[in-house]
Queue: 3 jobs
Job 1
Amino acid sequence: MLNPGRALIALSLFFLPQLMAAQDVEQVVKAPPLVANGGLNMSHIFNYSPDSVSRLEPYSYYLSGNFNTSLFGVVNLPLSFAYTNNQVTANLPQPFNRFSLSPSYRWITTHMGYGSMTFSPYTLSGHEFFGGGVELKPENGFRFAALYGRFRKAVQPDSSVYEPMYRRMGGGFLLGYEGDNMDVSVNLFKASDQVGSLDLSEEQVQAMPAPAENVAGSVVLSYRLANGFSVMGEYGLSAINHDIGRADSLPGDFGDRFFTSHGDVTVHHAFKAAVAQSTSLGRIGATYERVQPNYQTFGVYYFTNDFENITANLATTLFKRINVALDAGYQRDNLEGQKTSTGKRAIYSANVSAPVSDRLSLGLSFSNVQSYMHIRDIYDEVTRSNQYQNLDTLSFTQLNLSSSLNANYVLRATEQQRQNLNFAFSYQEASEQQEDDRRYVGSRIYNTMLSYLFSLTPTRFTAAATVNHNQNNMPEMNMHVLSYNLSLQKVFAEQFRTAFTGTYSSTFNDDGGVADILNFRLTGGYSLKKRHNFNVSLAMVNNQAQRGHSTSYSANLSYSYIFDMRLLRTNKKFGFEGNF
């Protein structure tokens, strides 16, 4: 029988001879040869509906897991994956069946599979890709990162789910230095549509969006003084060829191997600078940002351009209890006079949080700075029967204004029981305004929530009641959703837990009722040796809508396994310990 310790050492010597030579020998000798931990989850979902209008699949399964392996305390090999028999519909054709592997050694980290990296908000920021990447962060302050992969899958014009598009490949690098007083970095990102990734007829080529190419780069410099003064600046540039298919037929030179300069090419710039000073009152500063019209990069999902911002900010603590962060400034658009009108406005944001007393705490925020946010649809939430529904995380809404108020009051807090009352209100303006049309065509969203929480600590019983009202004012109509929720949870003998959730929701507009939804969910879970978790969930959703009535039943059976193990050396022998 093969000795696991000898096998591990043999593999390490075969794959990592250079790495082992560079690492502290004493640390390697003392560290466990192998440390592994992670988990695995498997879920089976069954759906049944006597109505023909049900859109749920009769059966689905979801398998996911994450594993991390450490060799001699210096080499880390994390791996995660997710797989399902159904593809999840999203705005972009990225599959839910995916995996990622990110092994690391000291200051070296590599990425394989699905992942995302960030260089700069003007070049590459959080866009998912399928490929490989590397990050180097040695102790001397130098930084290097690089990646290459597929940023978008090819979609044929006959697809009934997605818009047709070419496969998009991209890559880039970042080189920088982080010192005690100064940071400097430069990054470059390029992405290009693959013209040959689709088999198209002449008619289809004319109907397709033209294949494009983008090169974007930025330079970042920041400097800090010992007295708390700091200054930073970033300059970004993005060049886009909006039709490289037509440019391929034109003569090119050596530079075209990097970027196709012939054809419909546009170049845009962006700049940001900031200064800050830390004082006894807090931290004060100012920021200037200018982004040219039509500035865009293929490394960011959503981008706001054609604006100039001048802001001042302050962060301080008042009376040792109230935390305040304020931003105020001026913004204008139509920087180059391309639009028929110019918008000028004051921009501001504020965040205030304060524990008014031992029982009452308040939080307030307000902002009119444009941002992108994923807003959960209330209808989808109240009709959801399992946690794998509505996995579209790329549906973002542009917000022009947002504000919120949160108050939490402790009614009772003893060793036997606890009672809390929470109130929250939020207001958001979601804009769908077009560049050439200044009329407001978005929506105004109001959400009010009041909840009561009661818990008995010795018996591990918790009850919660919530009332929620959501109002969406759109140009065509006003939509309201009023929902009531009751949740009960009880834990028995540490290992067995049960929960019941009931929700009644009424949706109506200015003309009357639209739908009444009743959602019941009963769940139970059992833990075995703190590593094996078995869960069952039964749900019923009854939808009484104007367009028809429907009832659906769902059952979710899931099993999760958590392990933690080590290979140790004792008295010149190897042995495993841990939970596995």
Job 2
Amino acid sequence: MQVLAFTEYFGKQWPVSERSIALALPLNPIKVALVIGWVYLCLYFVQRVEFSPLVPKNRKSIANIVTLFTGPILLFLLLVLDAARKSSESKRGVFAIMVEHLRHAVANIRVPGLAYESKIKLLDASGRPLHELYGDGKSKRQVGSVLKLTEQIILGALEERASDILIDPKDDSNYAVRYRVDGVLRTEYSIKASVCHAVINSIKAVSSMDISEKRRPQDGSFTAKTAKTTASFRVASVGALQGEKLSVRVLNQVAGTYTLSNIGLTQKQRAFFESAIRKPSGMVLLAGPTGSGKTTTLYAMLNEIDFFTRNVITVEDPIECVLPNCSQIEVNPKADITFANSLRSILRQDPDVISVGEIRDEETAGIALRASQTGHLVLATIHCETNASALIRLLDLGVSPLLLASGLSVIAAQRLLRCLCDDCKVPAELSPAEIHDFQKRGVYYKNIFRAQGCDQCAGTGYRGRIAIFDVLVMDEKSRQHIADGQMFITSLRGEGEKKGKSNLYKQGLRLVVSGETSMEELKRVLG
């Protein structure tokens, strides 16, 4: 009652206009709440600046003081400047890079009291998760930020369809994280050395590698599980001048989905392959440099074989895709499981089809070619530029010309060309000289496009790749030439190399005039 009486008296003493002024005083609850919220926001962004790789180490103190009063404004300006720098390096739009940064920032916001739920789980060979393998002797907060950054790098590579992740020291204080997407490297992150050392250690820990050893080359592997897929990774580390370099190979999980009808073969080339793999014996050899898609073509041929009626055994390094009803052996030099040793044991397993991931030495080449003559179909790859250089390489490995001539059925050299992005490709502006050259060759040039770049292709102008092939079918005349020995080798070194590259160029030009790729991409790959 006394309170009510005091309130009534207080209201009578103050007119309505004075009460309105009172509500407008600085101590209004809404204004107080806004001020408190701004203070906490400033303190939060001071913390973000302290751990941000955008701010140089010697400028942290000044940046913290400025952020204490400006809140998110300084961090936003740094984000814009960093996005502009990355845009000039990768030719992506500034807005697209900023949206990507903000999306990652929102995804990494952790509400107090709620457990952090990762979109990806990294596991070692025995199935143990990363958070159980890394973090001894470190604070939970420090470990959590390192694990989230590691998971973000691996998840980003899967989302961007990267084939490799390279973590390289740029100088004593910074590391670069680069993705190889469609065969081309691009920088994704620039990380402080102190932070990146922890990221490298976390990847080495989950790959069952020695964290304390930073100079000696090491190899390892791990797997990653997401809501959509399970991916496998191979890791290699080596000591470099300004730190430790790490290479992570993303194994091609979709290789097992390809067939001869969707890898880029012409109808005539496809008929050659289908005829060769229907035969009970012989060797089909795929040639090309690293990253030219040989393994994918190998899986495409295996997918054309009926595993229920034929005993198929593969030797791979590593196994990139699991094939049902197929016996797959992974090379492990530490356990003395090499290509040559595996091939010797495979021949005692009554195989119909043998797939060799790569011919690297004389013993492997000899066993594979002899198997192709004794009632086995052999599918293999070799690192060479053209069909002619593949034959020369086998002869240099010590394979006799007669064995080579009788064992080989088909040799195919291949390359991968990036496909133009359908969302942004534009008609190419050809010079009069180029138009004259196309007219002279009888090539229709009206449907030639060039790359431009958009958000869908990360500013590159390309998305996805397609293979081109130079297929050589071994007939009686070719076998006779190979059996002739040295004279044939001498002719191959000149005319064979030139003819092989010319055939690949013709296949690439066919894709250019159909609007699937560009002249710039064809020149980049074939020179």
Job 3
Amino acid sequence: MKDLETESFQVTFLGDFSKKFVTNTLFNVLGRSFNFLTNLFLTPYILSRLGVGDFGVWVLLTIFIYSFNLLDLGLGFSFVKYISAYHTHQDYDRINKVIFSGLAFYGLLGILGIAVGLLIQGPLLALFRISHAADVYFVILLSCAVTNIGAMFLSVFKGIQRMDKQNSLEITMSVMSVVGTVVFLEAGFGIFGLAVNALVSACLAVCLTFATLKRVIPTFSLGWNFDSKLLREMFSYGFKISVSRLGNLICFQTDKLIVSHVLGLAAVSFYEVGARLTSFMRTIPLVMLSALIPATSELGARQDREKIFRTYLIVSKYIAMLTVAAVAFLVVNAGSLIRLWLGSNFDQSAVLVQILAIGYGVNVLGGVSSQIGAGVGRPEFDMRSTILLSISNPILSFLLVRKFGAPGAALGTSLALSLAAMYLLFLFHRDYMGGSLGTVFRGIYIRPILSGILAGLAVRGFHYLVPAVTALSQERLLVPLKLAADCAIFVPAYIVLLVALRQVSIIDWNNFRWLVAFSFEFLRHPFRERVKVYR
């Protein structure tokens, strides 16, 4: 690590490995962008059909869906890790054992999940003030059981680093879900229609992913390949991941449950709007991280530790620059973006966006360590930071929501996220990288943060000097003009500051040129380039 800890942290892209990593990331960008746009346009549509109260109920029910999925104890993440390692050595017999053992487990888990869910139905719905939703709740339990199986098959494509197939399937399933959402809501079925649509989409996803898997891996077979020892190994790895997933639930969902319990269902809708817009901000940075687990699993199987270090440095650097820019611009323009998206009725959600953006952004900065740690078989770093998050977030959110309302819950979440991310970085550097976190922090994070603050102040100064620009946000149709003007100030100021502070250099320019050239060639000959990368 010592030879990699230079003050400038300049690392070039890494040949064939970079081509596969960038290709997978490009496909993930395509898939996530589609999902982003889908959620962006569906949210106001669903709100208009359900109303604020029923939308709050649907938000809470979707949280329950995610909660029940945690019963797999992290086995889903183990699939990516183990299949990636076995695929590196072309061990298809072991891959078949992984898939069949997982299918057997998820079948039993689905039955158990439905049984447990029905047992706790009454007190659970009463706790969060949900009435007349028993039928919806049961359908959601069924969809959870089926969704886990489809997600298991989909994770195989992640493990073999075929993100082209994975995202193609996810886009197809998303289209089916959107069509179903519109059909059921226009027919007047409300949240029950959304639940049935989720179940139908889950069943179609299982069929589609299974058929595609048979085509991509001809040796794939569901013959009796149960391996209890392998399953125990996967659980040993996955349990640590499941703790992290629990932390994500606590962090990104429990605050809404607290808001519901303390302030009521209507407040959940306003809080969800703020959280959802902030989550959109994280989309692109998280896409850049999404290919790290299978990529570093492959490097770990090849014992190429130096390339893992270099991957960490270069991804961390570019993630930091992109994330800080997104957070700074969102904080400055939260009100305008909310008004453009949903109109003036949700203006009160803007302050929630500003508070959550900081915590969500810090969480993304720690994501590189989390993903690489999981990829190299060291998920305990993320697990330990998640334990801190799981303790601090509900305590802070509950205390602050009583004093400051919904903004208090957002503040508690942001504080907990920031503490957990810093602890994760400390553990990762101390126990794996073997270098100083302070050196990396100065080399990667300080200058983008300073540049983002100054660029945000430049936009504020522009508003002060030209108040007519701020006035544009009063009319929803004119908001895009204001955002364009702010972007014209923010982006050049941010880039100039990064260059002036020596965060970017000629090596980064060469990396950018290589990326553009490779992407252009890929777009010109997508099939040929895909075959070259994935062969």
